[in-house]
Amino acid sequence: MDGQSNSECCSSSNLRIIVQKNPSESQLSQLGIKSWPKWGCSPGKYQLKFDAEETCYLLRGKVKVYPKNTTETSVEFGAGDLVIIPKGLSCTWDVFVAVDKHYKFDSSSS
Question: Which residues form the (S)-ureidoglycine aminohydrolase cupin domain (predicted)?
Fold first, then answer.
């Protein structure tokens, strides 16, 4: 062992949060967003870890996410954005405006 366990420690360095601004109504209905469960939170800071890939659509809110152990410093999104959060991401959510969102976990990533 030479102490270089890069494959383990740094596999999360390429985890990227994907934000799609203003997806079309047809795309939202194709995804079945309105049938997804809802989740909300008030302004504040939250430590979150995603054990499965999550796709969410923000009905309202404004968030700045600070991923841990990645090359990205922060990602901002808010009401009207469709967001894909990768499996395995640990991050801090800094919620400026209370969030109300539909969400779905990718069952195939478990």
Answer: 29-103
How many angstroms separate the CA atoms of 106 and 109, rounded? 6
pTM score, two decimals? Answer: 0.83
Phi/psi at 22 (5° precision): 45, 60
Residues 6+ apart with CB under 8 A from 17: 65, 67, 72, 75, 77, 83, 84, 85, 86, 89
Write the DSSP symbol of residue 33.
Answer: G
Non-local CB neighbours of 87 within 8 Å, separated by 6+ positions? 50, 51, 52, 53, 106, 109
60 closest CA partner among 80, 38, 42: 80
pLDDT, position 66: 96
- Which of these, 12, 94, 15, lies nearest to 48 by C-alpha position? 94
